[in-house]
Amino acid sequence: MGHAARKRASGVFTTFAAIAVLCSCSLLSACDQSAGSASSVPATHTRLTALIWAPDWPEEMHKIADAFHRENPDITVDVQFMIGNSVEENLKPKVATNNLPDLVSVNPNAYAAELATQGILADVGGSAAWDNMLDSLKPDWTTLYGKRFGISGGVAATLIYYNKDMFRKAGITALPGNFDEFLATCAALRKAGFTPIVWSGAFPNMLANGPFSSGFANNVVAHHPKDWKARIADGSLDLNNDAAVDIFAKIKLIADKGYVQRGYMSTGYDEGNRLFAEGKAAMAFQGTWSSGQLMHGNHFETGTFVPPWNAPGKTVVPVVGSETGFAVAETRNKKAAMKFLEFIYDKGYPILQNKRQNVSPLKYVGGKTVTDQKIVDYVEHVAQAPLTAGPYYSYLPTNTIDMLHPLLQDVLFGKKTPRQAAQALEKSIRHEARTENK
């Protein structure tokens, strides 16, 4: 990618009628002024805007932007961070007002793909970052018409992190292989005086990524393994049944049995991770993106296992897919934004990776990076499962995503029953299919 062009001021000379003997002096004076003007005009400067989803790595994003500016002094990156519970709720008002930043975080879903189809997001397929992204992730970031709209932030999987010391003290010698065994594990931990698992009720994004996504994978995807995505797209997915109700019932049951921490409905993302890392809870239902925080707790060894959200006798369906990534918008600064995108996945990538220690989305990584091998092994293991499903944000319509977050909280507060929640989910999916909303 080339450097931003620099404009040069050109002198404009106007000669007024004057005494003939002074003409040559006037012309020389004008030339001197022109030369001085050209040397004093500053080079063209580009100010990029970036809107980023970084709940646990904002400092690293600032470091990447600063490093990029040092290497490209003619480009400054104004980094802003998304708030709330989803990427989509941050993007929609920006899109509606034609005010999308130059570089944005996006999810690998139909909403972002539609933005690309409409010409709002640029095609990044010609970038080195796209070439270097794992081939297994590229379909997630390609529209039906072949436009490549983003680069993944990593390989995403939701899993259960557990404190091996607590499990040993509670007399647990085998990891649970189904939901009944999981409940027995929780009971043993509580009997031993431990809080079994963290529920981040104030950040329903994680309830959706964790127990909801696993519930959907094992209770819905397992029943429609060949066409579940098509059923979501055309609105024919039936969720008015006991299997769909069970998705929400499991989340409520774990709380009702007292297997979660006190005040769980006021626990946010950072606090939930901290409770586990400080040894105040035995398990955390989290993603691979948090392995840098959760695999290295205070004076205990952390293990992982596949969330056993399957019924006894049924094969578990793991959750694995693409993490939230980056896209470039079709703005007047697209060229500079593409350059920043390349930097993020090149020289800037070690800054990000060494904080998060997740599973890299790249084939080749330059520089010195830290990756947790246990997490890499976990992802390689679940990827071999006969059936997998992605995280909820990769397949639900964007309005359904926004509806799901408070719905999960309503179930935990007792404002809605699990059956009412399943019916609301089905109604939203059908409405979005009928109105062709992504």
Give an account of the 3D structure.
The protein is α/β, with parallel strands linked by helices. Helices cover 43% and strands 10% of the residues. It contains 17 helices and 9 strands. The strands form 2 sheets. Strands 4, 5, 6, 7 and 8 form a 5-stranded mixed beta sheet that branches. Helix 8 crosses helix 10 and helix 8 packs across helix 16. It is globular. The two termini are 33 Å apart.
Question: Based on DSSP secondary structure assignment, what is the total number of beta strands?
Answer: 9
SS class = alpha/beta
Distance between the termini: 33 Å
Inertia-based shape: globular
Compute the average pLDDT: 90
Helix content: 40-55%
How do the helices and strands line up, and which of them pair or pack?
Elements: H1 23-40, E1 46-52, H2 58-71, E2 75-81, H3 87-96, E3 103-106, H4 110-117, H5 128-132, E4 155-163, H6 164-169, H7 179-191, E5 197-198, H8 204-219, H9 228-234, H10 242-256, H11 269-277, E6 283-287, H12 291-294, E7 302-305, E8 320-322, E9 325-328, H13 334-344, H14 349-356, H15 373-382, H16 398-413, H17 418-434
Parallel strand pairs: 1-2, 1-3, 5-6
Antiparallel strand pairs: 3-9, 4-6, 4-7, 4-8
Question: Keywords, please?
Answer:
single chain; 438 residues; alpha/beta; four-stranded mixed β-sheet; 9 strands; 43% helix; disordered N terminus
Short structural summary:
By secondary structure, the chain is an alpha/beta fold. The chain contains 17 helices and nine strands. Strands 4, 5, 6, 7 and 8 form a five-stranded mixed beta sheet that branches. Strands 2-1-3-9 form a four-stranded mixed beta sheet.
